[in-house]
Design brief:
The complex is a heterodimer of chains A (238) and B (258). Chain A contains eleven helices and no strands. Chain A is mostly helical. Helix content of chain B is 64%, strand content 0%. The chains are: A mainly alpha (238), B mainly alpha (258). Chains A and B meet through helix 3, helix 4, helix 7, helix 8 and helix 10 of A and helix 1, helix 4, helix 5, helix 7 and helix 8 of B.
């Protein structure tokens, strides 16, 4: 991000983006890309943090990228954007709900119900559930968020092993693909406990299963994944 | 746990799927709604696959099951729970090996979390995805069909024998060209079924698609060159630029009009 753009308000960034797309070649142009870059870089850490808190590292990158794509699409649409932060948050909730829909194949989880009021639980390790957020979330300003963003930027480690990181990313991608393919009766309890931080009792209540059924289906789900994961367990410990 | 209970559990999950299932749950494809009516059998196959118990799963030992339950409870903040290590302390080495494998798998997300993607990497990846030039986007079956229709719709209708709605649906087909690379006859047949093409029209559609591949070979950075699946009629021209391609199509259109 260029230094001059760091000081711009959200409204100015949105305005600059709209100008770029309207006057300099449309939504896929270089100008549009350059104008969206500061928006992406301002909000991606926030969205990634939200995604991690909801679904863990396995889905964080994907969920964050899908959210930013939705933000971009909505910027290109006919909506009048007066609150970029609200738009980002709303887009995240939409994508999160879509992911849950995919993982649970239509089953609505009460805890992940779509009616909970936004609690802004960034950084929480526990699931607070998907929320429908109005666009009236307080606009971003020089507040606590900047600390949160700084903290996340520390994680950008340029000395990290690139090959290892790529291999790990590929492993995560394969694991996600397998999770999407596994039988739903195994997937639902496993995802609830492994990725969403739910306790067995809660899972049993949500899925209308007995505790033993949750335990059994979870164990079978793990076995199912183990048999299909490429490589050996040593490879998974990259 | 008794098998009967297991079956009940699986039935409950199935019922819950029936209650809220959407087409998109089964076919993660942008055309799923268009294809809904013509693809009930595919949906059913997928559904059966999802609902069927995985018969190839080995027996889960009760010790592993309990240890996994204890592990998740600990991980998710339970204060009083059995320690998985204690539960498995007196187990034979095979069980312990199973446990270690499970732990290796379960640790993948934690390990991924240790190395968060940098903002810059995320941006580059996003940029490539969201701001790819249209010419590269066209390196899909849908892109090729769209371009053909844009240049000569009547010819496309005539040569393919397909209806206008089918061609419109094909325009959105995201199948990348590198996937089409290995297409065999049965793959084309599957493609035709997906779009509800009648059997009698299939040979014509096949010929058209193969011909289409020979005629259109867009050279774009990062995109596979040409439709490799179409090789058997005309020599392949992998280096046509977009301008040349437009001229080529224009000439073809003129010659057809003449």
């Amino acid at each position: 991000m260029r230094g001059s753009e760091e000081g711009l308000s959200d409204g100015e960034l949105v305005e600059a983006y709209h100008e770029a797309t309207a006057l300099k070649g449309g939504p896929r142009s270089e100008a549009a890309s350059a104008a969206f870059e500061p928006i992406f870089k301002r909000y991606w850490p926030y969205v990634h943090s939200l995604a991690s808190s909801k679904m863990g590292a396995l889905y964080a990158d994907e969920l964050a990228a899908e959210t930013m794509l939705t933000v971009l699409e909505r910027l290109n649409g006919k909506e009048i954007i007066t609150n970029l932060r609200g738009l980002v948050r709303h887009s995240f909730e939409r994508e999160y709900a879509t992911l849950l829909e995919k993982l649970f194949q239509g089953k609505k989880l009460t805890r992940a119900g779509l009616t909970v009021v936004d609690t802004e639980t960034v950084g929480s390790s526990k699931v607070k559930g998907a929320t429908i957020v109005s666009l009236n979330v307080a606009p971003n300003s020089a507040n606590g968020d900047s600390e949160e963003l700084d903290l996340l930027n520390i994680l950008d480690d340029p000395s990290a092993d690139v090959v290892e990181a790529a291999a790990r990313r590929e492993l995560v991608r394969v694991l996600r693909a397998l999770i999407s393919e596994m039988p739903v009766q195994y997937r639902a309890p496993l995802v609830c406990q492994w990725l969403m931080g739910m306790r067995i009792k809660e899972v049993a209540t949500e899925l209308d299963l007995t505790l033993d059924q949750v335990k059994h289906n979870t164990a079978r789900g793990i076995k199912w994944l183990q048999k299909r994961m490429p490589g050996t367990p040593d490879d998974w410990l990259l | 746990m008794r098998d009967e209970e297991m079956q009940k559990s699986e039935c409950r999950m199935q019922n819950s799927k029936f209650a809220g299932a959407t087409v998109n749950s089964f076919i993660p494809h942008p055309l799923s709604l268009i294809l809904y009516e013509g693809s009930c059998s595919i949906m059913q196959d997928n559904f059966d696959k999802a609902a069927r118990p995985a018969s190839d799963d080995e027996e889960i030992t009760p010790e592993i099951q309990e240890a996994l339950a204890a592990y998740f409870e600990q991980m998710n903040g339970a204060e009083t729970t059995s320690d998985p290590a204690v539960l498995l302390a007196s187990m034979p080495s095979e069980v312990l090996a199973q446990w270690q494998q499970a732990m290796a798998l379960l640790s993948v997300p934690q390990r991924a979390a240790l190395q968060t993607m940098s903002v810059e990497t995320a941006w580059q990846s996003f940029r490539a995805r969201a701001f790819t030039p249209a010419s590269v986007q066209q390196a899909s079956l849908g892109g090729y069909v769209a371009e053909t229709l844009a240049h000569s719709e009547q010819t496309a209708l005539k040569e393919s024998g397909l209806s206008r709605p089918t061609l419109e649906a094909l325009k959105s087909d995201p199948t990348p060209l590198n996937e089409l690379k290995g297409y065999k006859l049965n793959d084309y047949a599957a493609l035709a079924r997906r779009y509800g093409v009648e059997d009698s029209l299939f040979p014509r559609m096949l010929k058209w698609l193969k011909g289409l591949g020979n005629k259109l070979s867009v050279s774009s950075p990062g995109a596979p060159r040409g439709m490799v699946f179409a090789r058997d009629e005309e020599p392949h021209q992998p280096t046509l630029t977009e301008t040349e391609l437009a001229q080529h199509l224009e000439e073809q259109k003129k010659s057809e009009e003449d």
